[in-house]
From TrEMBL:
Species classification: Bacteria, Bacillati, Actinomycetota, Actinomycetes, Kitasatosporales
Lineage top rank: taxon: Bacteria
UniProt domain Beta-lactamase-related: residue ranges: 11-158
InterPro entries attached to this UniProt entry: Beta-lactam-related, Beta-lactam/transpept-like
Region (Disordered): 333-362
A Pfam family it matches: Beta-lactamase
Name of the protein described by the UniProt record: Beta-lactamase-related domain-containing protein
The organism of origin for this protein: Streptomyces nojiriensis
């Protein structure tokens, strides 16, 4: 069944590169690999660049580091305070948890990568816009909504590394969860390992020197073999089911990793879905120059799949392979993965009230209007005061955004990039 799923992808890939699909169904392993490998190393034994799956690995590692006292998930990142852009002149305190849940409100959705023979800017320079990415900036009210952001991981990386190297920190932390996993962190020269796969952008067109360098290691610069990533997924599932003891690592994974308290689908750098049978699974996909990777995991059913490709396979094609391969497992045909697309937020039903004064609530924001001031709050605690500038209108004087407009019991808040709908709480005064 997996080979059937690969057939079309192989046709698209041409004759270059490799594809590996590894499936574990209740302990039973199925491996299908295609391609010549590299330097005498079979495709399944090569290291592949993980792209954005690096974010999920970083999230799991941060749970360990939090338990070790190396960082606090909910304490502001003071070491990088000077690198965090301001919002309307205000300082913004961001926490590691907000970065991991993609709720910072910052821009830079993806990172571009650099050739290994060129001069690469520092993290601070990249954050300031002196690399190939735009300068970090808030696209709307800070911590107001979930929006996928790679740029914020550069801040987290600077906080974790305190200006140093993460080559040992993240892999060592992951081994606390999964002792058998051997991950590699990228460097400008590339990880010192002869088993690195070579990426292809198009059939017979390799990436120069085999791969690009991603200085934002936490966002896209980790490497793993298919079995390394699978080992992490299986061990995380054991922790989620409480089968790996009741230690600190297991309790943190159960309590935090797949939490959706900030968004109905986005957990800690992984998307969580339910299939047609109501079973929960989580998944993520990574893409970098010449590499495409994807995983999906049903932790309660102990069914997991990892797919990695250096061939010219597009993310949608690899996602189709994953879906068709899962259809042959004990979970049957799952719902199609969301593929990183976050759903829009819906408005809360409202009643009919006419005064501005009172409390308002939405899916990701709350607001309190008293006299001539509207105080808007995000779920993460960021507050913004707006002044009445016209009847039922609250804004920063002289600025078009952010702006609140109240119409009866409805409040519309715009930060210039997104419209939020709030409704008056039933407990508000008249």
């Amino acid at each position: 069944m997996i080979q059937d799923a690969l057939d079309q992808a192989i046709v698209e890939a041409g004759t270059s590169g490799n594809i590996v699909v590894l499936l574990v169904d209740k302990g039973r392993e199925t491996l299908v690999e295609w391609g010549p490998g590299h330097a005498g190393v079979a495709p399944a034994e090569q290291y592949y660049q993980l792209g954005s799956i690096s974010k999920f690995i970083t999230a799991a590692a941060c749970l360990v580091l939090d338990g070790q006292g190396y960082l606090s998930l909910d304490e502001p990142m003071r070491f990088v305070d000077h690198l965090i852009p301001r919002y309307l002149g205000h300082r913004v305190a961001l926490t590691p948890r907000q970065v991991l849940h993609h709720i910072t409100g910052l821009n830079v959705r993806s990172v571009p990568g650099y050739a290994r023979d060129e001069t690469v800017p520092t993290l601070a320079e990249i954050i300031a816009g002196k690399g190939r990415s735009p300068a970090l900036a808030f696209t709307g009210i800070p911590t107001g909504r979930v929006a996928y952001c790679s740029g914020a991981f550069a801040l987290l990386q600077a906080q974790l590394g305190q200006g140093g190297d993460l080559a040992g920190l993240l892999p060592d932390a992951i081994r606390e969860i999964s002792p058998g996993a051997a991950l590699l962190a990228d460097s400008l020269e590339g990880p010192v390992n002869p088993s690195l796969a070579k990426g292809f952008i198009h059939p017979a067109i390799p990436v120069p020197q085999g791969s690009l360098h991603y200085p934002e290691t936490c966002a896209g610069g980790l490497w793993a073999r298919p079995r390394d990533l699978m080992t992490v997924l299986v061990d995380i599932a054991d922790h989620l089911r409480g089968e790996s003891g009741s230690g600190t690592v297991g309790s943190r994974i159960r309590g935090h990793l797949l939490s959706r308290h900030l968004h109905p689908k986005m957990a800690m750098s992984a998307l969580v879905d339910e299939d047609g049978e109501g079973r929960t699974y989580y998944h993520h996909q990574g893409a970098s120059a010449g590499f495409t990777t994807e995983f999906a995991s049903y932790p309660q059913e102990d069914v997991h799949i990892v797919a990695m490709a250096t061939a010219a396979v597009t993310p949608p094609e690899l996602r189709t392979v994953v879906k068709q391969a899962l259809a042959a497992t004990s979970v049957g045909t799952p719902a199609a993965p969301a593929g990183g697309v976050l759903p829009s937020e819906s408005a809360t039903p409202v009643d009919s009230r006419t005064e501005d004064t009172g409390s308002y609530a939405g899916d990701s924001l709350g607001a309190e209007v008293v006299a001539d001031v509207a105080t808007v709050r995000t779920q993460s605690g960021f507050e913004l005061e707006l002044r009445r500038t016209a009847a039922h209108v609250y804004a920063v004087p002289g600025e078009p955004y952010p702006r609140c407009v109240i119409d009866g019991d409805r409040m519309r808040f715009s930060d210039g990039s997104r419209l939020y709908r709030l409704s008056r709480s039933s407990t508000s005064g008249s």
